[in-house]
Every structure is written in structure tokens, then in C-alpha cells.
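Review form for a predicted model. The reviewer records the input and the model, then writes brief findings.
Reviewer: anonymous (R2)
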Amino acid sequence: MRAKQWATWCAMFVLLACAGSARAQSEDSAGDPGDSLDALRQGRLTIWVLRPASGHRPRGASAGNRDQAEITYREQSASSFGQSASDYGTASSNYGVASSSPTISAENAMPSTDQNTNGNTAGTPADPSSKASDYKEQTAGSFGQPSGSFGTASSNHGQTAGSYGQTASTYGTAASNHGQTAGSFGNSLSTIAQAGTSAANAPKPDPLQERLAADLQDLFPELQVQFVDVYVDDLKDDLAAVKGTTAYPDLLIGPLSAEWWSGLQGRFGLAMLQPASFLADGLPYGESFTPEFAILARAPHMETAKAFALWMSEGDSCAGCVQQSSSKRSQDAADVAVSAIGHLLRGENLGEAADPSMADFSPRLGQGLLATTGNGVADAGAVRVEVIQASTAERLAVVALRVMVSSDSVFGLAHPLVVLRRADSGAWKVLHVSLNLPEVEQQSERLALANTSPPARAERHAGVVGISQASPADGDSRPPVPELWWDNGGGAGLQVVEWQRSRGGWLDSHLYLAPDHNPKLQTRVTAQFASSQGRYRWRVWSVGAEGEMKISPWRTLNILPK
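Model under review:
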């Protein structure tokens, strides 16, 4: 355990060091909080916190029928709400599907044959429904390199369930002055107690919920927020019971059941954009997770609920940030990046905006950014693309973007990352697009790509020599998760493995980062991304000072069945 904590702290130190040196190497256009969170600053929210078991509620008792005996649905004060982290939902170590499972899907399925981003024709893909059987997403413990090399630790972006929060006895805002009082919101605590609920049957305090309440109070002191505990098995009846009343919730937070995703969302909730897939990118991450949440379609305070969802999705570091000012060089790169995402959202190729070396894939894959978890359809008119932050060097630019969809039926966020290279003409050209990344991964990759100068002065002056791929040979077949290695010519501070998977045609590409801060003649990485049977291809970017870059040829790789 101590070794793991030490590795986490080392990763934090490396990331912070990269952030500082990145500013010395590149122009970093810092994001500032925009107006997306204004509704949280003086709004009102009612949040139902879902509990995973129904307890002892008698048949017929519901949130709207509180005169029934033994009702376990209660409005909680700061000293009583929640349950222990060990009882709450799913532990981060069990969250999702284990790396040994062959059933998880983490990539967009290839759509029908269309032109690729450079205007070429892509192959006919397989049925999207087939993807679940042959692609495996990695657990937090199996990504990329050891924690001691590079990345963002969980203590820097989010916290584990066990450390997230504070005890009720140290929480500073009493229920009587936090949001609405119990007497003005549905039934009072005394009424509920008279109905048969006792403090002995109250759920145990939940550190996650307490920390959430504390953070909201600290960051948005004017926000009036009400937390109400609801058992997940009773959700359908409780929502029906409070329909049309002041007790109707704005959001649900907690373990959403299969019943919610299979039917209740279409009846009660907004459709949400599909979440980003966490693919191996070479950077280590600690154990962390964001609780599931949903926005109700009839939320009384809809704009505040959407602002809360944005804040939950992007964390405290710079939730809702947008670039306010930048140099002309950064602004030019940001404009090209925004335009590129706009083309992909419409299923259009990038044409002359694409770098000649950009990986080919069907531009219709970009429309997958607007795929939803429910029945709603994201209207292109409801889409807004914002620049979170742009980092530029003399020859390389990295732009972190936010795609926000907000309408009466759909809400959601996506976080593309666009890498651009300056052409001989001086114009920025799109070299790579990561269509949607978790926000923590987006920012970590941006920082890494903004810090590419080698530490040795001699290497910086010599320039990038490039690499020579050694193994596997082009077209070779290997067991899952093979080792890739190449010979270094020197001059780089970052090696980037760009990879694609074929499913009837090449899917969109992804980046696997290997910081090159120590002089060495050879680099070996474990291809965590090549974990399922199929055809892949890979190449290496060798990136040095001011974004100078040399790119190796593509090599194909066939992964054998396990």
C-alpha cells in the first residue's frame, strides 16, 4: 500500500513539473471560468441520493404517501444523511468490467462506408453490435506505465470513495441553514418520524455525499441545495408520487439501476451523451470514479441541474473553464481545432485542414460524439464547441475542447483533444483528433504534449533524429498485449505511439504516451491497448523542443486469440 501511495505521489510530482516546464516551452492559453456555471451561483437544487437497497419499506408506502408506517424514505440533516463508503454503490476496484472479461466495448463502432477525414474512401465496417465481444477496456490498475513515470494521480483529480468526504461531526453547515428547511420542503422531519422512521433506522453517513455538500457550500455559497435519500428499488413509485409537487427532484445521484437505463430514463430523465471510454494512453491514474447521475426531464430547476452536471463531469480544477484570451498563434490553432470538430460532428472530412500525415478514418465516426444513452436525439443546433485551453509551441499545438449538447431532451459533454502541426506555409494543420476523452485524461495528454523538450542541452541543439521500429515486424502476429520496441536516434523529450484498430476499416486513432526524459538507445513499451483479437497498426511520433517532430511509418500487428 505504501509503495502504491509513493508511486502516486511521484506521478503527481512529475505532472506538476511538466505543467511548469510546459509554460516555459509553449504558450499556454489558460482557461477561465465561463458563464456555464452561473446557475449554480444563485440557484436551487433538489438532489435525490439513491441507495442500493429498499430496506423495510412496507408495500404501498412511497415518497408521496408518508403517512404509511415504517417508511424509510427520509429527508436527512447534515448529521444523518449518507452511508459509509464501504456500503456505497460499487468500489472503484470493481467498477466496470475486469480486464479479463471479453465483453466490454470501449470504441465506437465503424459506421457505413464513407469518406475518411482526408477525403479517401474507408472500408465497410462490421456490425456495431459485434464490438462488445472483441474489445476490452483496461482497469485503472493496468493502464500504461508504472505510476512512477508520468501522469495524474487520483489525489490530483478526484479521490477514492474511501477518502472522499468528511465526517458528519465536522461538517460546518447545519440542515437549518443549508438550502431550504425541512419544514418548507415536503414533510417535516417530525412528520416523518411520527410515521414510524426512527434515527436507529437511518442510513449511515456517506462521506461522498457529505463532501459533495461541503464542496457545493464552499464553491457556491448562495446555492440552495436539498439532499433526499431514496431507495433505488422504490425510485419509480417515488417519482410518480411527487409528480407536480415542490418535492420533485432535479437530479438523481448514486447507483442507477438497470431498470433506469432500460426504461425509466426514457420516461423520467433526459437522454445523456455516451460517456467517454478510458483507453490506455500510457499515463498512470489512481483509483477514482464519478458517481452516476441523471437529470430529470421535468426538473424544476433545469439550468441549475445542467450546471451541476458540468461541474460533476469536470471536477473542481477548472469546471466550465473557457479560454478568455490568447496570442494570435494560439487563437489561430484554436480556430482550426474548433472548425475540425465541427466538420466531424457533421460527418464531413477535413479536406485541406488535415495534415498529410493524419491517420485516415471515416469522418462519420465524429457523429458518434452525439450518441446518447436514451431515446433522445442530439440536435446539431443544440451543440456548442468551446476551447478549454490551447497550448502552442513553434511547430506544435494542442487544443483541449468541450462539446456541450443542451436541449429539452438531451444533455451531455464530450472532451475532444486536437493536435496540430505547423506546415511550411505557416498554417496549422490537424495531425490527430482524440474524439472524446475523460476530462482528466484530456488535460494530462495536453500537458504531456506541451512538454516535449529533452532535458539535455546537447539533444535540444542537435534536434530530433527520429526512431527506427525494431519489433514486432510489420504484419507480425502476437499474443494479446505485446511489447513494442524501437531504437532511439535522440533529440526527443516525448515518444508517442499512435495506434488504430481495424473493424472493416480503420477506426479513429488514439495516443499512447512514453515520456523520454532519460538518454537511452532503445524504448520498450507494453501495448496495453492491443488486448483483444484483431488487426491493429501503430507508429511512433518522436517529439522534441518547440514541437519538432518526426513520424515513423505505420506497422500492422495481428493480435491472436487468447
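Findings: The chain is about 20% helix and 20% strand.
Further findings: Confidence is low (pLDDT under 50) at residues 1-25, 29-33, 55-115, 120-200.
Recommendation: see findings above.
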